[in-house]
Specification:
Blueprint: H1 3-30, E1 39-44, E2 51-60, E3 66-71, H2 78-87, E4 97-105, H3 117-141, E5 145-152, E6 161-163, H4 170-180, E7 186-187, H5 200-205, E8 210-216, H6 221-236
Helix pairs in contact: 2-6
């Protein structure tokens, strides 16, 4: 082997080494971080409060838009809340990154249809916890979208629907897109909402789009699963 051939071989070795390093770096920097594992944390646990607040973080794609779901504002609607908490963390191929804020009301929860004052007290307790803890946390995290999950007893013309309490703005548009792409979820705006002033309305006023998802409380669990999967899927298609 002459000197010229040796130089060519050395140059090829250097080029191959550089290319190998570039490939390794590309794979390293584009894979999800090892620290992006799903975690569940308690963010409010004051004995003076009528409940606690938790958050499940880092669901889905860490490089996507950041979207928050909120459950538990009205504690009697827990079946629909539990459905989201069950399905979202196990959803595959999500394009965006999701956190779930879970409000756990422990005082005056009440029961559907009992007509007692505990019913309204439980709702107010959840709303207060949402405003005290979830609202400032969402502002700090600066999410691209927030969905407040609720359910209803069928008093509205539609049983499964989305809506924004603020008629103009991005939240209204995004909720409309979800409804348009859904077979079982429509867009319908109730005359009023008790929880709006405690979360979704002030978030919209601060520039963070926030809308509601409402499910029928007495739908079977299979139907709840179908509707929630449809919501998760069509929310994930937003911002594309």
């Amino acid at each position: 082997m002459n000197k010229k051939e040796l130089i060519i071989i050395l140059i090829l070795i250097v080029i191959i080494s550089i290319l190998s390093m570039l490939i390794v770096n590309e794979l390293t920097f584009n894979k999800p971080s090892d620290n992006n594992t799903i975690s569940r944390q308690t963010i409010a646990n004051d004995t003076n409060d009528p409940g606690t607040v938790e958050v499940i973080k880092n669901i889905g794609n860490p490089n996507g838009k950041r979207i928050a779901y909120v459950v538990g504002v009205h504690p009697l609607e827990y079946q629909t809340h539990n459905t989201l908490v069950k399905l979202l963390p196990d959803s595959s191929n999500l394009k965006n990154s999701y956190d779930i804020y879970i409000i756990n009301v422990t005082e005056d929860v009440g029961h559907y249809g009992d007509g007692s004052s505990d019913n309204s007290h439980g709702r107010q307790n959840g709303q207060n916890l949402a405003y005290k803890y979830v609202y400032p946390e969402v502002l700090k995290e600066n999410y691209d979208l927030v969905i407040d999950v609720h359910s209803n007893v069928g008093a509205y013309p539609y049983k499964t629907f989305v809506f924004s309490p603020v008629k103009e703005g991005l939240a209204n548009q995004l909720a409309g897109e979800v409804a348009q792409n859904s077979e079982n979820i429509t867009y319908y705006t109730p005359d009023s909402t008790t929880s709006g002033p405690f979360l979704t309305i002030p978030l919209n006023e601060k520039g963070i789009p926030a809308f509601y998802f409402e499910e029928y409380s007495f739908a079977s669990q299979d139907i709840k699963d179908i509707h929630m999967t449809e919501l998760i899927t069509n929310v994930d298609k937003l911002f594309s």
